[in-house]
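Support reply, case 0932

Customer input (verbatim):
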Amino acid sequence: MLQPGYAISAHAADDEVLFGPEFCFECFWVGVREAGDRQHLVAFDADSPPAQELLARFQAFQALR
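Our regenerated output:
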């Protein structure tokens, strides 16, 4: 099984992770992780212009690290 390539985490004021979408641009799925468990898998068009822009932003951020 492929692991998500990129994720965004939303944190509470006490730094607890509330939820986080995880994006796999190889298998075209977004999973939403809540309380440590993946709750939903949703297909997305990874080749669409918005998805490609998001991927470019993920890659640019990763290059800064």
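We compared this against your earlier run and they match. Two observations from our side: Residues 6-64 form one domain. The helical segments are 49-64. Please reopen the case if you see a mismatch on your end.
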